[in-house]
Amino acid sequence: MDCPSEERIIRLKLEDHAEIQNLDFNIPGRELTVIHLGDANKLLNDLVPLNFGASIKSSFDIITNGPEISTPGNKDEWKLLIMLLLINGGMFFIEFSFGIFAESMGLISDSLDMLADAGVYGISLYAVGKALTVKKKSALINGLFQFVLGFGVIFETVRRFIYGSDPEPAYMIFVSLMALAANVYCLALLSKHKDGEVHMQASYICSSTDVMANVGIVLAGVAVFLTKSPYPDLVIGMIVTVIVLRGAITILKLVK
Fold first, then answer.
1. HEC letters along 137-155
2. Which SS3 state, helix, strand or coil, does residue 23 take?
3. Which of 26, 80, 196, 252 lies deepest, with the highest CB count within 10 Å?
């Protein structure tokens, strides 16, 4: 549980439990506090199949007035989430297009990471206040789209391992630096909210991870230039794609 997509998956999984009165995510500590009625094991049984390492650390009775599960209602946060959605969505198209032009699987796979983040923000904004079935349908569409693209990138990466490829390191470095700048900007926007509500903390952590991925692709571009070998690009592309594909499969399992 270390990015907005995993938090969103957990919320979606637990949302039809009427006995839940509040969810409090501690992303850095990988902990979730649930205020609920009834048996905690019933909730645990739904979380275990997600393979996030769910277990009951402690359980005790409290007195509560039953607050509702919180949702991002602050106008400033809404504006920020829309900005993040536009940045990630725009960078997806830029990286994907240049990735095809430059024959770089690193750029193509990182564009999927941008798409995954944009999908998280988009679903969160679209589904607020709507029925659970609408939220699940939105998540299903996002998961299917990510899965199809991710599987296609995996197939193409394997093909290029077998038959060879010729990535352009200059484009790799230039475009990945653009993506790095975009993610650093997102990180700067989120820095004011890193100690705020949990969905903003999660977004900050996920953007930090994206920055590291961008640095990896820049280094892969340098390695391609120095070694005249396509393998650094292919290896980085495979790693990033597998991570995105794993998230897509988890979503599909959740909403099937």
1. HHHHHHHHHHHHHHHHHHH
2. strand
3. 80
Per DSSP, the three-state class of 31 is strand
Nearest to 91 by CA among 211, 3, 248, 224: 211
Burial (CB < 10 A; 0-12, 13-18, 19+), residue 52, is middle
Confidence of residue 67 (pLDDT cuts 50, 70, 90): very low
Gyration radius from the chain CA atoms? 20
Instruction: List pLDDT tens digits, range 171-202.
Output: 899 999 999 999 899 888 878 766 655 555 55
Angle at the Cα of 83 (from 80 to 88), degrees rounded to 5? 125
DSSP-based three-state secondary structure for 55:
coil
| Residue 172 to residue 229: CA distance in whole angstroms | 13
Bridge partners (DSSP) listed for residue 34: 23
Tokens of 235: 């290896």
- What is the C-alpha separation between 70 and 127, in angstroms, rounded? 14
Q: Are 186 and 87 in contact (CB under 8 A)?
A: yes
211 vs 27: which has the higher pLDDT? 211
3-state secondary structure of 156: helix
**Cα gap 8→19, rounded to integer Å:** 19
What is the pLDDT, as a whole number, of residue 69? 42
